[in-house]
Amino acid sequence: MVAIAVYVFTTSPDRNVFDYFVRLADAFLHGRLGVTEAPSWLNELIPAGDGLWYVPYPPMPAVALLPVVALFGTEIHQQLVSAVLGGLSVGLAWLALGRLGVVGRARFWLTATFGFGTVLWYVAEVGSAWYFAHVVAVLFSLAALVLVLERRGPALAGLLLGCATIARLPVGLSAPFFLAAALGLGWPPRRPDDPRAAVRTGLAFAAGLAVPLAAYALYNLARWGTPIDQGYVRIPGIFEDPIYAEHGILSIHYIPRNLYAIFFRSWNYVDQPPYLQPSWWGLSVFFTTPVYLWLAKARLDDPRVVWAAIGTGLALIPIVTHGNVGITQFGYRFSLDVQPLLFVILASAFRDGMSKLAQLACLGAIATCAYAIWAIGIGFVAF
After folding, report:
1. Which of 41, 146, 211, 376 is the most exposed place for a label (fewest CB within 10 A)?
2. Is 383 a domain residue?
3. 148-157 pLDDT, tens per residue?
4. Could you tell me which residues come within 8 angstroms of residue 199 by beta carbon, excluding any fewer than 6 positions away?
5. Handedness of CA 102, 107, 111, 114 (dihedral sign)
6. Is 364 exposed, middle or buried (0-12, 13-18, 19+ CB in 10 A)?
């Protein structure tokens, strides 16, 4: 509840105009796959003929909005829903950290950092189209994480991870971690003591995961005539954008620019107070959340850490090969696609408690994110 209150308090009172998903939810409620209006500021809508435009993004954020739009109509402020869902994610992070063996002050500080010392705070309170997709993906990923850590409900866990995937597609590549956690696999993997039970669990997880993915494939089939076309290349003018003009949307040529954004991107310095200006290009994850430095102290004897590292690495493949590093943004918003797994790894470093230095790093992360939200709120931000 505290996280929800803070997120709602810091969000803008003005309705966010990048409300692709509110409009798409309304279209779904009226039996349409596309929206009937294409205002100039929603410039990524794809013409579909017959007075319809398709939203190119995966549809789970619109599905999550269905009950809200059904009750309150299209005038609902999308960022308010984003703030509530983001706050719920902080509660799920608390539960997950407890199941990872983190207790006491360490659990408090890690939960506080998850909610207020990462880009989740900014993304949730802004709640625009791309940000809202991140919030929905984090929520469903954490719900799946809690279930697999408890070794129960594999079908539901798979379903939840599938829902996260059709909010943010890279999340689906982290599935090996969730399956390994559901099965209780060690590292290196060994034949389970009860192979039949393992097969049942694996099949249940796969069946749950398949439901949202199949629905997304059918959604694409209905729109484009093929289940594997995600629609991004159909966005008008996409290849005229200088970001993609030379190498397309995905390319290994983009890896250096993403690694720079992840590890080295810093503040803009301005000669007048308050001096440090957030850059719309982003900010290194180690500057926004310095406690991530403690990932180096993760316990590799914990199989969950190894599987989380594998899941993170797989999910990062389409992220670091994407031409856009996430602009406009505070921090590196794509890190949210793997943030639940990063905290699985981070938790292993603090199961025996948290040093004063690590607590200071958590406090620094919270202060950094709070400052950035304030600075952006007064317009002290630039590329």
Report:
1. 41
2. no
3. 999 999 999 9
4. none
5. negative
6. middle
pLDDT in tens, 28-87: 999 999 999 999 999 999 999 888 999 999 999 999 999 999 999 999 999 999 999 999
CA–CA separation, 270 vs 363, rounded Å? 25
CA angle centred on 118, ends 114 and 124, rounded to 5°? 90
83 occurs within a structural domain: yes
Q: What are phi and psi of 169, to 5 degrees?
A: -60, -40
Phi, psi of 237 (to 5 degrees): 75, 10
**Rounded CA separation 343/51 (Å):** 45
Q: How many residues does the chain have?
A: 383
Tokens 């950290």 appear where? 97
Residue 200 in domain: yes
The DSSP output letter for 15 is P
Tokens linked to 325: 């590093």
Q: pLDDT at residue 145 above 90?
A: yes
Q: What is the dihedral of CA 331, 337, 339, 340, to 10 degrees?
A: 160
How far is the C-alpha of 150 from the C-alpha of 315, rounded, in Å? Answer: 23
pTM of the model: 0.96
- 191: pLDDT strictly greater than 90: no
Q: Which amino acid is at 253?
A: H
Question: Domain range holding 229?
Answer: 2-377
Residue 95: how many other CB atoms lie within 10 Å: 16
Are the CB atoms for 223 and 33 separated by under 8 Å?
A: yes
How many angstroms separate the CA atoms of 117 and 110, rounded?
Answer: 9
Q: pLDDT, tens digit, for every residue of 209-226?
A: 999 999 999 999 999 999
**Gap between the Cα atoms of 57 and 222, Å rounded:** 15
Tell me phi and psi for residue 173, to 5 degrees: -75, -10
Residues near 203 by Cβ (< 8 Å), separated by ≥ 6?
none
In sequence order, the 6+-apart residues with CB closer than 8 A to the CB of 166 are 58, 59, 60, 212, 213, 215, 216
Whether residue 382 lies inside any domain: the answer is no
Q: Which residues pair with residue 35 across a beta bridge? A: 53
Rounded Cα distance between 22 and 1, Å, is 24
161 contacts 175 by C-beta, under 8 angstroms: yes
**CA–CA distance, 15 with 128 (Å, rounded to integer):** 10
Q: CA 60, 66, 68, 69 torsion: positive or negative?
A: positive
